[in-house]
Design brief:
The model is unreliable at 24-31, 470-475, 497-513, 528-540 and 646-655 (pLDDT under 50). It contains 20 helices and 25 strands. The protein is α+β, with helices and mostly antiparallel strands. Strand 9 (518-520) and strand 10 (523-524) form a beta hairpin. The strands form six sheets. It has an eight-stranded antiparallel sheet, with no helix packed on it. Strands 10-9-15-20-19 form a five-stranded antiparallel sheet. It is 37% helix and 22% strand. The protein folds into two domains: 70-429, Chondroitin AC/alginate lyase (Glycosyltransferase, Alpha/alpha barrel), CATH 1.50.10.100; 449-684, Beta-galactosidase, Chain A, domain 5, CATH 2.70.98.70.
Amino acid sequence: MGPAGWLDRGRRALYTWWERSAVPRRRGADAWNPFREWRRGSVAADMQHFLRMDDSWGAAATLRRHLSERLPGRLFAGLSDEALPARLLERCPEERQRILAEADALCEGRFDLLGYRGLTFGDPVDWHLDPVARRRVPLLHWSRINPFDVTLCGDSRLIWALNRHQWLVLLGEAYRLTGERRYAERFEDTIRDWIRVNPAGLGINWASSREVAYRLVAWCWALVLFWPAPVLTADLVTLMLDEMRLHAQHIERYPSYGGTPNWPLTVEASALFYVGCLFPELRRAAYWRRKGQALLERHILADLSPEGRFGATSTSHHRRMAEAALHMLVLADRNAVPVSPLVRERVRGLLHAALPLRRPDGLMMQVGEAEADGEWMLPLLPRHGADWRGLFAVAAAVLAVPQYAWAAGGLSSEVVWFLGTAGAEAFDRLAPAPPDSAVFEEPAPGGCVPMRSGWERESHQLVFGSFGDRADAGGEDPLGIQCATFGEPVVIDAALSGPAGHREWQAFIRMTSQRSTVLIDGLASGARPSDQPARRAGRPRAVLRQWCRNDRFELADADDEGSRGLPQPVVHRRRVVFVKRAYWVLIDDVQGAGRHRVDLVFQLAAQRAQLDASLWATVWTANGPGLAIKPFADLALRGTIQDGVHETAGRAEQRQPVRTLCYSAEGEAPMRLVTILFPLRDERAAPPSVTPFADDRGRLSGLTIDDPPATILYSDHSITVEAA
């Protein structure tokens, strides 16, 4: 840690000490003066005129009147577009209906959070309660609370998800669409009650600056969405604005420095930029805007290469960075804040780098850490973390890129909320088009290798591995696969495809057979026995050795040393061969010595699966297409299909069906398993005839396939595909 880091720690410690001593007396009878920080412009002089006459109501009314003339023009264009309700009804009726349905449930006190459905927190809402664990966090200074102490807090993330108040934005959208007073009344009750029972600096809801930032961004949107509502009186506006100032002050004092990539600091920078743009009359506004913009631009330029590769092996981090960058670009344009053209180019590169992971059905393959409910900075419409369509739609309208319009699959409500009618028209002027080529030269977000037959709705796609210094972050398997055939997902990663994506779920599932990977002695690739020390930071566990292609096949060759911690260490090498862009061959080599059990596991998204006596497995999706799977080995194999139900960290309310195909063998290393993955259009299609053959040592060295006719030859050093 350098001098700047020690200075920051000292500053935080000083602020914490001062707050602890000041909190007991902060809310004294004469302590609250919400107007003292409004130091700029004519509004300050006008308010002071009323304050000298001890007329706080007149000062509050002056502030509200001043902001009424300016605030709608400072946020996003859609929020001041009177044609927005009609435009959404015409262009996005299904999304409009989803917003209203969500808002109705919220008015009834039912919340969908972190995979739970219909949670209730009491009436009135208990803002410090985990209703699942039945734990209520005491109202202590935030620095005295360990939010990850489950005996004290239960699941702090569940409490935080409620207190982010992102659901207030849905209420605001519903109010703008219908004008119904009940949405505004629920908003007013929420704001007044929350401020009353969450004094600044006290309680778990101030224990994370990231959570404070999420709430601040949501309040910025909610304030403007409800601005025309009669319930938004001058006193409520004044109360809310002063609380927003305290939020920004807390973020400034306690930034989340440390970690790469640093998403908490990114969302905190976004919140400061928001407040600095919306309320330039505040004394600290200019500093907050400059500080937020500088941090965001630094992260964009430092964490992204010119091609858009992000520092973390996680598509969720990639998505969140793209979201924060688009918020900054649109808000900067709205407030005439200059942004470097280089930043805009890097944002384009970031989004372009993600296109190879778009599944044929419009969702995204996920690699690396998956956050609960996607963890969007501002979900204008509830979306899973794999659903980037709204993000791509906004990017298409802002950056005028046809490929993003294609990835979006059509206009989304987010475009209208962000950019108004003009944004919808800009989107419509684009001619959606897929990328020029389905051949990729660089790994996609998450450090993975994408392979696909094309960009059509019925194309094939496979994503392989997660490579780099952070390849074990978030619980992903560094040599795992996910694939789709004829546009339908078939082989998935259960840790990333579940509804909640809790870290406990990822940590549990990575140690089990519920992964599309190879298990050695019962452990997933990269998992380690509990008595083994963790891998030293900065040392890549999985390495992509080769990624090449010719007119007959594409090859990705990688190995993983994550199993060196076993009593008899081994190295797992996996080669993925995409033959004629029609089917895949997996070549798994377990290199080392000693006797080991090897399990070849495929986690299936398919609805139906069957395994015959010859070990051919056929799996079928609900919409028809499927996949034929057949392994070959130089030792005896046995196969099973297991059906079951998994719970997220033991939570019965988050159960999901699971179907797992597993091939097992036991023998002396080195061992080789060769598996063909052959797409099937429908149930009338039959798997091909495949004949393996071995070299002089009896080791598998090739396959002959009858339809389409081909011979695949492989050794430790080369792979050849010969057409018959």
